[in-house]
Structures are given as structure tokens and as C-alpha cells.
Amino acid sequence: MADRDELYYRSCLEHYHVSRRGLFRGLFGGVKKSQPQQQMTVIRTVARPPTALDEALFVALCNSCKACEQICPQQVIEWGNDNKPQLNLDYNHCSQCGQCQQACPTKALSAEKADTEYRPLFSAGCLNRVSGQCQTCVEQCPQQALTIHDNQQPQLDSSRCDGCGLCRASCYIGAVTLRLVG
Ligand code: SF4
Ligand code: SF4
Ligand code: SF4
Question: pLDDT for 44-85, tens place per residue?
């Protein structure tokens, strides 16, 4: 990407409210009008802090200052090989406190919806499935995204889930894994 493009859109972000779709359209629309937009989509392969913009725009705007990593009270932001911040929810959950977004000087973290893009998967070892005696993850979920019935694994309403990882952190037998859905 030419420096002029990045500077232009950074300026836009500072002065106007621009939707993610609008930013993408503006960022790539002038390159080749006839090129389908989906060819420009960059698939996110690692989790980013919860208000990261679409991957190509995030990578373009992030200046690797590490302010988000340093301020995160949950210590779930770590440094990736791409010299950009990544989310690691293996040992803690994201409290969705918003401090990383507030600390980010470039608006790389400025999406309207805070979502890590992780979603939980529940294994067959789920205690409720085996014995009907556990509702821990359902009770812990701050978004009320989980429901459970006798002797079944929890059911996820993905539209309510923000990928915080608290269900995984609360499951004391390790029956919850997180997958990146992008
Ligand atoms: S929202 Fe808060 S807890 Fe989550 S990654 Fe950002 S600073 Fe850390
Ligand atoms: S605070 Fe923003 S610009 Fe700095 S490393 Fe984090 S995402 Fe990148
Ligand atoms: S990741 Fe967070 S919001 Fe989503 S189901 Fe688990 S606890 Fe609920």
C-alpha cells in the first residue's frame, strides 16, 4: 500500500466516523474498479484485540507501538511474529474492558463491535452432558450467549457471543476450546 493511502485513511479515521465496510471500500475501491472486493479480503489467522478493524486495515494502521499490550489488565495481548499484537486466551479471558482500544493511537482498534472472533466449542466430556450436573459456563457467560438442557452440551447463540473466553476459563475440566471464526 502506498504511504499516501495509509496517511489519508488515518486522517479520515481521526476526523470522521467511517464504517468498516466504508473504509474497505474506500481503501481498495480506487485500485481497480472491476476487481471483485472479495479478492482483497485478508483472512484473519490469529486473534487480535477485540476491536481490531478488518485484518488488512488493522495491519496497515497498526504501528506496532505495543501500547495495547502494555495496558491490558488481563495480560492476554502478546507479541506476534508479524510484529503485531495477538490475543492469547489460553490462560485468561478478555474482560472486554476497552482499555486497549483507548490506548491505541492509530485507530487500528476502533471497530464498532468488540469481538475477539473466537467462539467456544464444547467437547463430549462436558460434565453436563455426562451427568446433567453442571451449568458453570452458562452462569459465567456475561452475554447470556449459552443455554443448556439436561444431559446436553451447551448451545451457543453466536450472535450474542463476543469471544471473551470466560466460558473456557470457567470450565474446570477443560471441556471448552476456542476456535477463530473470522
Ligand atoms: S479489552 Fe481489555 S482485557 Fe480485552 S484485550 Fe483489550 S485491554 Fe485486554
Ligand atoms: S496500540 Fe494500536 S497501534 Fe499500538 S500496537 Fe496496539 S493495535 Fe498497534
Ligand atoms: S466466549 Fe464469552 S460471550 Fe462467548 S459464550 Fe463464552 S463466555 Fe459467553
Answer: 999 999 999 999 999 999 999 999 999 999 999 999 999 999
The burial of 85, by beta-carbon neighbours within 10 Å (0-12 exposed, 13-18 middle, 19 or more buried), is given as: buried
The residue segments making up the domain with residue 136 are 118-180
Cell numbers placing 58: 488493522
Q: Does 125 share its domain with 49?
A: no
Nearest CA to ligand 3 atom 3: 161
Based on the fold, state whether residues 98 and 148 are members of the same structural domain: no
Cα-to-chain-centroid distance, residue 11: 24
Nearest CA to ligand 2 atom 8: 62
Residue 156 placed within a domain = yes
64 within a domain of the structure (yes/no): yes
**Measuring from each residue's beta carbon to the nearest atom of ligand 2, which residues come in under 6 Å?**
62-68, 85, 103-106, 108-109
- C-alpha closest to that of 102 among 70, 54, 80: 70
